[in-house]
Write a structure and sequence with these properties.
With 239 residues, this protein is α+β, with helices and mostly antiparallel strands. It has a single domain, classed as Peptidase C12, ubiquitin carboxyl-terminal hydrolase (Ubiquitin C-terminal Hydrolase UCH-l3). Helix content is 31%, strand content 17%. The chain has 8 helices and 6 strands; from the N terminus they run H-E-E-H-H-H-H-H-E-E-E-H-H-E. Strands 1-6-2-3-4-5 form a 6-stranded antiparallel beta sheet, with helices on one face. The radius of gyration is 17 Å and the shape is globular.
Length: 239
Amino acid sequence: MAPKTWIMLENNPEVMNQLATKLGLSPELSFYDVWSLDEPELTAHIPRPVLALLVILPHTPAWKEDRRNEDAAKSDYEGRGPEEPVVWFKQTIEHACGSIGFLHCAVNGAAADFIQPGSDLDAIRRAAIPLGREERAKMLYDSVPFEEAHNSCVQLGETAASNEDHLGQHFVAFVKANDRLWELEGSRKGPIDRGALGVDEDVLSSRALDLGFRRVIRLEQEAGGEDLRFSCIALSRKV
């Protein structure tokens, strides 16, 4: 039987805030557009600290090679249980990368404190924690509330256009948890620890960007590529 295939979500605040509302993330948090990584005046509207970044990036040859080299040295992730540094989901639903990216932003780090008790998001996180990689993926694959929440967002923004618009692109979440920057993507072998962050450094800080999002952009530039089709939104507490 063919795997489930969903319509890929648009990476914008309207879509992800709707998904957050549907699944049960507190309205005290909101996603905001990140218009620039280098011009402070274009990020002044985003409340700090930023708890997570949700990024969509083109799967360029340079990044593909970098990913292959990193993953070749790793075994499949075996983390589980309450001591797991982050909750990571393997993706087994085609084109569900946006919704899984949202989960990675919402159930890890400081954002997890804003999950509404008794919500679908709370149930998904609690169910996931004791499970291993494959069992966790199956739980998410079979989750009716997760699928219904995703489907409630497919007509928002430009999402409904076509999956063809997003072929060759990947959603990646960057989260600060336990003073480390984590790169979370369901198509990798597991969560990636990108390094330490100071108490005063959030995921939109210069150091976090250099360790994470800007690192991927730099790979493309150093390879002489010109595919910079990326978008980025930030999850923060409302002022």
